[in-house]
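Progress narrative, Year 2. Work on FAD-dependent oxidoreductase domain-containing protein 2 from Taeniopygia guttata advanced from sequence curation to structure prediction during this period.
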Amino acid sequence: MVPVAASRDAGSAPPPSLAPAAGGRQRRALPALPGRRGKEEGAEREERSGAAGAPWCRAGCASPAMAPGVCGTLLGLALYASSLSALSGATFLYHDYCVIGAGPAGLQAAYFLQQAGRDYIVFERSHAPGSFFALYPRHRKLISINKQYTGKSNSEFNLRHDWNSLLSHDRRLLFRRYSRDFFPDADTMVRYLEDFASLLKLRVQYNTAIIHVTLEKSEQAWNGHYFLLTDQDRKNYKCSSLLVAAGMWVPNVVNFPGSEYVEGYETVSINPEDFAGQTVLILGRGNSAFETAENILGVTNFIHMVSRSRVRLSWATHYVGDLRAINNGLLDTYQLKSLDGLLEGDLEDLAIVKDKKGKLHITLQFYLENRNISMGIDSITLPQDELDNFATRAPYDRVIRCLGWKFDFSIYNRSLRMMPGKGNIKKYPQIKPSYESRGTRGLFVLGTASHSVDFRKSAGGFIHGFRYTTRAVHRLLENRHHGVPWPSTVYPITQLTNSIIKRVNEASGLYQMFSVLADIILLRENATAFEYLEEYPIGVLAELEMQTGRKARNGLFVIVMEYGRNFSGADKDVFYYNRAVGEAQHAWQSNFLHPVIYYYKHLPTEREMRVRPPDWPLPRPNAIHHIVEDFLTDWTAPNAHILPLRRFLENCLSTDLRNFFAESCFLFAFTHQKLPPSCQQGYIRMQGLVGSQELRHHAVQAGLLQDYAHTDFSGDRPPDSHDGSQDQLMRDHGIPVRPLQHLVNAKDEL
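Result:
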């Protein structure tokens, strides 16, 4: 009997001792030591298997060419059927957190867990991290931008235009240090991820394919159950929380008569010469389809592309997953009538018939009713037999499927209730806005597979988006399991305007995950101070107190970034004249990405979140303010941006947020029943700006002080000398009292 390693969380008891594994071999439960089960053990297992390239497919597969998804499914079912009776006596290696997948999301989660000192392990099926990028995109050009220069040195701001770097404290791990290409090579991403894992000493167990996951009920577990994982070598693992970061790697396949003649994106040749003089049909309308077309555009007779949906251009939809300009050469040749073309049609209605010369003819399934396709093309009616100008009447040499990817549900036991979504998100698992599975508590989906939360809306399916949602999930887990509240900073209320302006001008998480992540400002009693929380998922705003450990008793502001409501869409003309708004009074009509501030007197309820209009990110607030869009995305203009924001905040709080000089506060003390917060927190407490030569110079130029420099700084004493007490300083630099009437008009002060 070997006890497994106990959880370090005081709120959970260690799992009970477990019996030896089937076969009589004792398996020692390892403590959470950095690098204990890393590349060394992975290399040893790889050497034993003799199949480094596909460790998940080493047993139970009839053919090496079998698709990995099918192979994994068969192997998982076989293992599950043969080991049901043995699980009760198996030894499980325990970790608090298990992460499936060492792609960008898995490594990002590992980084945050390691920084927090948590017990975790990452399982990676390949011999190195980022195995997806080792294969895809097939033509090796990423469409995630890598902007070298922004004109600014602020690292947080620069991440707005760096779509490849993961978050870390190590400045060496910025992607611009790996490539200077605006659209970098995928091989560079593989090298970057390898360095990220090795330099940060993340605990990744390579050559370990998790092929079955189930639950074990236990009152001792954090979530009422443990997650039991089995790998391809029949080793067993147990964890309290499961983070699934395995990505989307199972090809989407549409089955129809003749689909066996279709080549897949994952296997088709990438050598353009193989397509010279050929006629090609591509099924699909996404970036992989246009990437494939771009590669062979100059050597084919012509290319046709068919899909159910119309072309969606990313600059029109403002969704980075739609067609990017780098791949849209086919649109030019189509619209300029250079033989290539685009068609719309339901792929499930198609059929392909192969003639004696090997040419592929496109027809419709209803033409094949009551006919045997194997009898040959002569016995089959083709559309052009009835409609002689049928669009796809010319035969094709090749048909290529480029339909994207879907999540692999095959390894999850029914007890986990990992169900696919509905409609256009059926390729993703069902999860909550907190990225937790709808079926199982404690199971979180990270990375590309979590994109159902913001599909076709924001950037949650891409590195520059899910690096922030992964951090948000980590903060939720820290509060839930370890009693560590969501990070926050408390400021005096006088810093409210400045805090908002700073964040909307710098924050990358708000900028990339617009309408999904928000900054939350929790007001303290009597609005004398506020607590600032960064990048919280607004989909679970009603659960804020439970999820963060912070209290929202006195109202709150929610800061998000949004596009105009009617500015994004495949059918929108985003280049129309006068498309931008420049006047602050029309800020609510802003089209481009801009900050929006929602004010709530009380935290919205779950019902209010549930019944809000589907295109609203939040329920109706008590007040709302749009900061007018800016061509430079620089919201620092005093009159257009800052002044309207400050007045909005003042109206919500019924207070004056301006900063005043001591002389003004002195006057207000005699003329106002309630002093402005800056006077209460500064002048009354004898606090304020420390005088300096530069400040005095500006005050003299503004006419607020007399020029006393020639009398104050005499002899050899330096002007900024602060020797002696503050009282002595005041005696040495006496400031004559000036008339106060010119300060009465407080509206002239910012």
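The CA atoms of residues 71 and 260 lie 19 Å apart. The domain at 93-250+407-466 is CATH 3.50.50.60 (FAD/NAD(P)-binding domain).
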